[in-house]
From TrEMBL:
The lineage of its organism: Bacteria, Pseudomonadati, Pseudomonadota, Gammaproteobacteria, Enterobacterales. NCBIfam families: RND_mfp (TIGR01730). It is a lipid-anchor. Residues 3-52 form the Multidrug resistance protein MdtA-like alpha-helical hairpin domain. The gene is acrA_4. This is RND efflux system. GO terms for molecular function: transmembrane transporter activity. Residues 248-264 have a biased composition (Basic and acidic residues). Residues 243-264 are annotated as: Disordered. Its main location: membrane.
Amino acid sequence: MLDLSRGKKLIGTHAISQRDYDVLNNAARESKAAREIAEAEVESARLSESYTRITAPVTGRISRAELTVGNLVAAGIDSPVLASIVALDPLYVAFNADERTYLNYIDKLSNKDKPEVLVGLADEKDYPHKAILHSVDNHLSTETGTIRMRALLDNPSSRLLPGLQARVRLQASKSYTAVMIDQTLIRTDQDRRYVLVVGNNDKVEYRPLELGNRQGKLIVVKKGLNKGDRVISGGAQLVSPGETVVVSKDESPSSKSREGNKSS
């Protein structure tokens, strides 16, 4: 380029011939073209080098390497997978619900406060994890009569992994105060459910029950019991309604009906 610049000055004063100037001009063009080719090769090499680093599109946990150093890596659908990655936070909890549950929840999905879904794992007795109902499938299975639902579960510790088996509990209504007793205290009389309680003057009373939903070992009593009623637990088969009994001072907590906050 310096020679061409000098040549422009010399050709202006007729110090060099037009032929010599044309030689300088052509050499400058060839030099510029060679530079552009070199820059393109550098950019191509930089692009190729960038392909050697794969950045995951999601945050999660990567599997073991399927290919080790020395194996040929190629692009294409039929090429072997290098590794797989799964997102861990949040997780989707998929489950099937019956038609009645779907009809109860579909209107609540459009609300700002999404229905809560309680989640328990195989090694957990209760439902310690709280998720939010996220989506519902667009059709009901005619084979099973159920519809697919998904809940969104926060997993900041990354302890939970995709594929784990889980149990779910849906909150069908807002929490309310209910009388609950241990299910083992309930007796059967043909198609009736009842308990024997110690009423006034320590006399045994027969109480037919209208039951609600279960929550662990407890069950909701809609009608038939009030808070504080003394339900006979041990020896109920030895007494009959109307008899007078002696109440033990050492009453177990399960022998009394009690109130609790219930979400059915």
